[in-house]
Amino acid sequence: MNNSVTNTARLLGAGLRALLVLTLVTGVLYPLAVTGIAQGLFRDRANGSEIKAHGTVVGSSLIGQSYHLPLKKGQQTPDANLKWFQGRPANGLGTNSLNTQYKLILSGATNLSADSKVLVKQVRDAKAAVVKDNSVPGYTVRPADVPADAVTSSGSGLDPDISPAYAGLQVHRVAAKNGLPVAQVDKLVEDHTSGRTLGFIGEPRVNVLELNVALKDLVAKH
């Protein structure tokens, strides 16, 4: 009887010590070490890849934003604010009474098949809008000029980047709406175009938020 109680107490004591040691290692020391390394070596990424404009955080380089005009009376879908570069469509985002694209952490793809009539209509409507919105005096966009990322949403619906082709297609419209020389806006896009990661992973891309922050600064100088 005494041996049984002694053994039980010994096992409970060993289990408690193991719990305390593992809690200290995995619950305190390891998180502190990882946090310290992240803050020391990857501070920007560890803190959410924030983008600042004049000392104020305006967003994350990892999450796209919408650039819309305020809703008009009776309007359900806001119009794009054509003064700014536009990102990819966000058709995949969930729809409910709370979600107003990007203001709620909600993402997802459309899950529509390639032959879906809904998807085909979305793409056709988006292409027509891109052609119409970006055709300005002296510069006409043809349907064949519209790149795929201008009319399709990403898997998350929150893609922060667009292709250099889509950014370039918007240059004349942005220049006209802001009273800027086309060459300056084109140079802005060129300066904010990132190449493939490590030279071979992915495709060249333009971060829309970073580009629009630079555009705002350029407009302020004129």
- Weakly predicted, low-confidence segments: none
Number of DSSP strand runs: 5
Order of helices and strands: HHEEHEHHEEH
The separation of the N and C termini measures 91 Å
**DSSP summary: helix tally:** 6
User: Looking across the biggest beta sheet, what order are the strands in?
Assistant: 3-5-4
Percent of residues in helices: 40-55%
Explain what the structure shows.
By secondary structure, the protein is mainly α. The chain folds into two domains: 2-43; 50-221, no CATH class. 45% of the residues lie in helices and 7% in strands. A three-stranded antiparallel beta sheet has the order 3-5-4. A two-stranded antiparallel ribbon has the order 1-2. α4 runs antiparallel to α5 (182-191). The chain is elongated and about 95 Å long.
Key terms for this structure?
6 helices; two-stranded antiparallel ribbon; three-stranded antiparallel sheet; single chain; mainly alpha
Write the layout of secondary structure elements.
Elements: H1 2-41, H2 43-46, E1 50-53, E2 56-60, H3 117-134, E3 161-162, H4 164-178, H5 182-191, E4 193-194, E5 205-207, H6 208-221
Antiparallel strand pairs: 1-2, 3-5, 4-5
Helix pairs in contact: 4-5
How do you describe this structure in short?
By secondary structure, the chain is mainly alpha-helical. The chain has 6 helices and 5 strands; from the N terminus they run H-H-E-E-H-E-H-H-E-E-H.
